[in-house]
Design brief:
Length: 158
């Protein structure tokens, strides 16, 4: 009996490549500068900083909360208590980078949800040189406009 072993690289953030990244074409993007506080909780205990987004349409009061973990990574929730996660569709495999204390970052997001029906968010260093995380959310409504509203916990908007 012969035993064959194959090595395979597993990456939990890799997703389907069915659409072009909006960050390469620059259409309908908006940017918010955020700053981490001097007192980010130790990564031994999970702490999530909230980023609130809202739809700008007058007919809807939809909101999305993104959460940045103190050990890195963006998550999405449909409630302000961060109890109801939203399914993410990751496009690229990027390792999580821990946010540094008293550091500035840029949160780049698609302000208009187009025909591909997703909301994309890109957290990069202030210089734009490296990506902390990039997520894509499947959205039920097309032609929706999203706007950053507020940051909570150990991050704040500039």
């Amino acid at each position: 009996m012969k035993l064959l072993l194959f090595s395979m690289i597993a990456c939990g953030q890799t997703g389907p490549l069915r659409f072009i990244s909006p960050f390469k074409c620059g259409n309908c993007l908006d940017t918010t500068d955020i700053v981490t506080s001097n007192s980010i909780p130790d990564s031994m205990k999970v702490s999530l900083a909230r980023l609130e987004f809202c739809e700008t349409a007058k007919t809807s009061n939809g909101k999305i909360w993104l959460a940045l973990g103190n050990s890195g990574g963006l998550l999405a929730f449909s409630d302000s208590l961060l109890n109801k996660p939203i399914l993410l569709e990751k496009r690229i495999g990027t390792p999580f980078y821990k946010p540094m204390r008293s550091s500035a970052y840029k949160l780049v997001y698609t302000s208009k949800i187009g025909p591909d029906s997703y909301f994309a968010c890109h957290l990069v260093s202030e210089s734009g040189e490296f990506v902390l995380d990039e997520i894509f959310l499947c959205m039920p409504n097309q032609n929706t406009q999203m706007k950053f509203k507020k940051a909570y916990n150990w991050i704040s908007a500039k």
